[in-house]
Amino acid sequence: MSDDARPSYLIIEDNDAYARRLKRVLRKWGNATVVHSVRDAKLAIAARSWAALLIDIGLPDGSGLDVLEVLRALRPTTPALVLTGHREPAAINRACELGASYAVKPVSSSLIDAFVQSAASLRARLAFGADTWGQRYALSVAERDVLLRSALGESRERIAAARKCSTLTVKKQCAHILRKTGDATLHNAVARLMREIVGV
Questions:
Q1: 3-class SS letters over 114-161
Q2: Do both 115 and 127 map to the same domain?
Q3: What is the pLDDT of residues 22-39, one digit of tens each?
Q4: Model-level pTM greater than 0.85?
């Protein structure tokens, strides 16, 4: 598999030695990029989709939980593992509320492997969920694909390019999905789909 075809992971960690360790563990699963601050993490999340994120809470310019909030607003289904050196109940609860896994440093390689394997199965679980919704709400094949791609965090422009259609067509398909499912926004629909596939 070429480097471009391998999954890409984002590590947000300000400790260089620990970031290198995480990158070594992730090497067998795909490509890993390291950033060291909330600012750089937000830019990386806005720029592209990631297979999963590993997020340190204590960063020089803020909290990794701020990064997680931005991730959930832009890409609600991207798997995230929040890392910290402390057992902070408020941080653990907030990470869970934002749909992230949580681990206390030092994190074992086997825990990271288990997280990545779970993240890798997300596409299959989302596809199953989109098919289930297709039957439940009488979604067309195109609408199912748009729903799945939206759940995977693809932008409207990227969906249009992949489907070889205009962004206006994608917008209309999104409107049809919302009319059929009764959701107010596509973000709400994706969040509800995610809740349904937990444990699938």
A1: HHHHHHHCHHHHHHHHHHHHHHHHCCCHHHHHHHHHHHCCCCHHHHHH
A2: no
A3: 999 999 999 999 999 999
A4: no
